[in-house]
Structure to design on (485 residues):
């Protein structure tokens, strides 16, 4: 039988050969998302502009100043979710106008190949484990054979000892009769031969027991190494949600989305039922309290959305104190905007003029209205960069229009006369044009977020959180869906 050193070397060499296969599998598993990541990086880099990165990521300029490139920033600094958001922003128009679903189709194909690879890698992992186990099983067979040999040797020793006792118990006459042909057997020589035979068997037994101890210890050592390797395989598989040795974690069967929607629906019904009798003034008060207590960032986002038309109506129903407070907030919002002069339809308009639209020349009001209406008319063809640039100017108009809605302590009386004044009508129509733009942008955003959710699902990221969706950020409008004029 092979020595311990020979067996140990044979087992270690076998494990080393399997280790090469394990490491190769680990490399391929770690790169299971490479095709997806390369595709997402390529699509994001293809469309994203410097302005978008600069406007959305504060560290972009510093990264470029430090010698980085736009491509490296996208690949290395942005998360998969952020890249998907960029791809969606720049491709939503192609999908809506041309029915181009190539991005989704390609990601779906990539996801299919990834699924196939995961199944293949799972099978390979099980095969690897089987290879390690085969090496252990071979040594286990060796151990079992040794145990059987040891039992045979012990039986041989027992038989020889019985023969020795038998010879030692016989007298010379008995020995002579048993010798038959030789006449007389040398008793001492027989005893010597038997003792020599027994000693040889005992030495053999000692060697076998030592081998058994060595091979058993070796088996224990190699089993520990096997467990470590199996744990390593399980770890790098689980990192990619591949479960070869146990079931994947169970997901609760409770449909939390349905429960949430059901509860949300009940809450809205209860709220509407209890608040339906509220007057528009009380609704406006509720909306204003929500707006006033919001952070400046949320206020800015609310003003940019389609709810801005309702914010105009809200301002018209506020009492004198709240209206003055709202006007103060809007002056803060317009004063924090960076440019002192904005151009609309080729006409330069100052921030000061926008802060006091009632004194703005009619041709300037007309220039603002014309550019907004023209942009609205061609909105479906606008890119995210064009939309972002336009919104930077529209912030001034929204704030200015709302300031005009809150000027004066006797706004209710003045609003009545504004209906019959050209200036009042122009400002109100301007607000409606801005609100129409916000509605178009909101519709685009909702469709974009739906597309983004689909892409996120295809890359196993799951849909956006409910409260991350734009449509979940309305002001508190208890008791009414709209205001009457």
């Amino acid at each position: 039988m092979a020595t311990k050193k020979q067996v140990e070397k044979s087992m270690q060499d076998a494990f080393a050969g399997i280790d090469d296969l394990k490491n190769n599998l680990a490399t391929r598993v770690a790169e299971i998302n490479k095709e997806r990541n390369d595709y997402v990086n390529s699509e994001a880099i293809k469309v994203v502009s410097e302005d978008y990165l600069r406007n959305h990521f504060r560290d972009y300029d510093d990264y470029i100043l430090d010698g980085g490139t736009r491509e490296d920033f996208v690949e290395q600094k942005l998360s998969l979710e952020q890249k998907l958001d960029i791809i969606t922003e720049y491709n939503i128009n192609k999908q809506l106008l041309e029915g181009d679903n190539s991005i989704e189709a390609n990601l779906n194909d990539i996801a299919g190949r990834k699924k196939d690879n995961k199944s293949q890698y799972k099978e390979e992992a099980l095969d690897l484990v089987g290879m390690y186990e085969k090496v252990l099983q071979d040594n286990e067979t060796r151990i079992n054979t040794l145990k059987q040999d040891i039992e045979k040797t012990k039986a041989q020793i027992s038989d020889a000892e019985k023969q020795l006792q038998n010879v030692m118990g016989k007298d010379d006459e008995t020995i002579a009769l048993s010798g038959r042909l030789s006449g007389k057997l040398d008793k001492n020589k027989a005893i010597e031969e038997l003792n020599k035979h027994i000693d040889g068997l005992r030495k053999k037994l000692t060697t076998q027991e030592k081998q058994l101890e060595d091979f058993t210890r070796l088996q224990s050592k190699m089993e520990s190494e096997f467990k470590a390797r199996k744990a390593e395989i399980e770890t790098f598989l689980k990192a990619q949600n591949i479960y070869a040795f146990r079931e994947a974690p169970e997901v609760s069967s409770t449909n939390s989305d349905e429960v949430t929607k059901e509860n949300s629906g009940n809450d809205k019904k209860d709220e509407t039922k209890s608040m339906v009798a509220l007057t528009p003034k009380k609704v406006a008060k509720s909306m204003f309290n929500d707006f006033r207590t919001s952070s400046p960032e949320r206020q800015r986002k609310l003003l940019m959305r389609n709810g801005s038309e309702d914010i105009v109506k809200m301002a018209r129903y506020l009492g004198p104190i709240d209206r003055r407070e709202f006007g103060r907030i809007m002056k803060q919002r317009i004063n924090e905007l960076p440019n002192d002069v904005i151009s609309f339809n080729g006409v330069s308009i100052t921030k000061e003029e926008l802060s006091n639209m009632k004194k703005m020349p009619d041709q300037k009001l007309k220039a603002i209205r014309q550019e907004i209406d023209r942009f609205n008319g061609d909105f479906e063809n606008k890119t995210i960069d064009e939309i972002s640039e336009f919104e930077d100017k529209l912030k001034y108009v929204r704030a200015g229009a709302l300031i005009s809605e809150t000027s004066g302590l006797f706004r209710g009386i003045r609003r009545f006369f504004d209906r019959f004044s050209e200036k009042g009508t122009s400002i109100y129509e301007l607000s409606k044009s801005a609100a129409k733009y916000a509605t178009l942008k909101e519709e685009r955003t909702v469709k974009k977020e739906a597309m983004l959710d689909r892409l996120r699902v295809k890359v196993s990221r799951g849909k956006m959180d409910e409260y991350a969706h734009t449509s979940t950020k309305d002001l508190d409008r208890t008791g009414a869906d709209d205001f009457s004029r």
